[in-house]
Prior knowledge:
There is one protein chain. By secondary structure, the chain is an alpha+beta fold. The chain has two domains: 18-147, Sandwich (Immunoglobulin-like), CATH 2.60.40; 205-350 and 358-605, no CATH class. The chain has helices at 18-34, 154-185, 221-238, 261-282, 287-308, 328-346, 362-365, 368-387, 416-425, 436-439, 450-472, 477-499, 517-540, 550-553, 556-566, 583-605; strands at residues 50-57, 63-69, 78-83, 88-95, 100-106, 112-118, 125-132, 139-147, 205-208, 211-214. It has a four-stranded mixed sheet, with no helix packed on it. Strand 7 and strand 8 form a beta hairpin. Helix 8 runs antiparallel to helix 11 (450-472), helix 12 (477-499) runs antiparallel to helix 13 and helix 15 (556-566) packs across helix 16 (583-605). The longest helix is centred in the first third of the chain and has 32 residues, at 154-185. The chain starts with 17 loop residues before the first helix and ends in a 7-residue tail after the last helix.
Amino acid sequence: xxxxxxxxxxxxxxxxxxxxxxxxxxxxxxxxxxxxxxxxxxxxxxxxxxxxxxxxxxxxxxxxxxxxxxxxxxxxxxxxxxxxxxxxxxxxxxxxxxxxxxxxxxxxxxxxxxxxxxxxxxxxxxxxxxxxxxxxxxxxxxxxxxxxxxxxxxxxxxxxxxxxxxxxxxxxxxxxxxxxxxxxxxxxxxxxxxxxxxxxxxxxxxxxxxxxxxxxxxxxxxxxxxxxxxxxxxxxxxxxxxxxxxxxxxxxxxxxxxxxxxxxxxxxxxxxxxxxxxxxxxxxxxxxxxxxxxxxxxxxxxxxxxxxxxxxxxxxxxxxxxxxxxxxxxxxxxxxxxxxxxxxxxxxxxxxxxxxxxxxxxxxxxxxxxxxxxxxxxxxxxxxxxxxxxxxxxxxxxxxxxxxxxxxxxxxxxxxxxxxxxxxxxxxxxxxxxxxxxxxxxxxxxxxxxxxxxxxxxxxxxxxxxxxxxxxxxxxxxxxxxxxxxxxxxxxxxxxxxxxxxxxxxxxxxxxxxxxxxxxxxxxxxxxxxxxxxxxxxxxxxxxxxxxxxxxxxxxxxxxxxxxxxxxxxxxxxxxxxxxxxxxxxxxxxxxxxxxxxxxxxxxxxxxxxxx
Length: 612
């Protein structure tokens, strides 16, 4: 046991009067020797991210204990428990995900007696003694620890260390094998490393002493690797991420690991559109054929998302009571369709033009019709978001509603975005948004709604810009990497200005549910940096072949649909027995993710790639 926090001046420093010091020490000794373990009322069994908090009221008046979460923006305090007077106690199970702000109020005087903020640890038992201070004028709340918490980070540390050792072995083993083969056969002529082309589907011709010789077509490894990395993290997150809060979506504003993968995936869609369509256009595929192809692919993605990934075993496959019209694949399909139309209509400029004043930015200027459409779309998002009148809500509201913003706008979740989706889809939307638990919202809100799809297109267009840079400056790796860096700096600076480098106080907070402009610029910055790094390692230097992420990256549709349909069946998952720690859940999440990577690897060996 030990003191966690004291308030209201039990110890005000080392200059206390001797009598007061002795009284305080005696009080603490009585608390420690008596403990709270013998008086702990029987309660529920603690699960992950939970702790037990027991309040002891040593005053002659009833108390209310109120709480709020520091992550919850301007949230109204909620009642946690009521403690009766005269040495009565009450217990409550609390969440350990975020820091809690608590205050004790007298029911008779309606006054706050003491308050504190504390980040409690998982599995711990904590006691709070509400009593008079040593001088008898103030009320103090003394914290003691009856049962120490266990280390909730230990499972993920062990998993990270194991993955690091495994990755190191997979990197070192082929290197040692190659060295042994070199020493054994004493090669005198070194084979030249294969040169990877910069297009995922294109064959180039090279002249060898005046005669044309075909060069083997290869894919841009960094694209498949980046796509596969995003998809692997997405699968891990969808399996629960070991139950850790930072592997789940943020309640409203802010970023977690789960909020990163979707925009990365959209970014790579844009890059792949440029590379693939350029290849098809150079092979002589006409615009009509391209339109047929993108229309078919869009319809297939829509049907997959609408029919197969909309299934609820509880209500049956054809129940209209739960049917959700928006969805992840639906958004990806619509985003792909718009990007493909842009590339089909104004994507034929791929030759450098020198001698013009705008030559240094020709990868932007030559595509001015595309930029004009994207700017108009973003202007539409800004106007609708901040100017559309929403009944009973402030214009331009971006909050979660519920108990947030001092409880003034309980039914305004998402502002204009939520209003438009509800007008379009009614209740056929996502009914359990990430803000529901923390903000106590009652309105359905879909993170894949209509207004957010506009910024999804903008995010994909940033990926198209990355593809144009690779096409225009093919063979000039320094130019490519420098332009990636410039774009990352521009987008990162824009995100910092929009957010004022804060989570909730900026002009436009980073918000994945709304796909806010700051969220898109922030994720665009990270996408350019990550793609540039993978491009340098895989395609420029050839230090890494992209394994194992390249395998799911080359079969992304199969892995995504497969894990969504079969992911919660054995052997990918099972009913967990140990609910009090992260060990089993983390093992299950890693196991299911690893199995899908293995499936993708086996299909890669068989040269089976599901294409639409």
